[in-house]
Known about the structure:
By secondary structure, the protein is an all-alpha fold. It folds into two domains: about 1-75; about 80-110. It has four helices and no strands.
Amino acid sequence: xxxxxxxxxxxxxxxxxxxxxxxxxxxxxxxxxxxxxxxxxxxxxxxxxxxxxxxxxxxxxxxxxxxxxxxxxxxxxxxxxxxxxxxxxxxxxxxxxxxxxxxxxxxxxxxx
Length: 112
């Protein structure tokens, strides 16, 4: 028969889907079966919840890394690579001003 620690390890990724309430229900069931002492139930539930949160965090990091690699592979632009409307307006404004300056200097040369 597996001890409570081994059972909690066997929950593995399934624990990711467990809410605090579900974990408490599971622990109460283990207590009623005599597999976990009543005095240890609260600590055991807290450990299971903590392990579940750690696994969720690990899974999030793994998914983030894989998505980042996939986006890089397909060469999708990142948010910081995109030009905003305001930046485009400023570029156009600068180009218009430069063209007007050049046009003005050409007129001045023609009148000399």
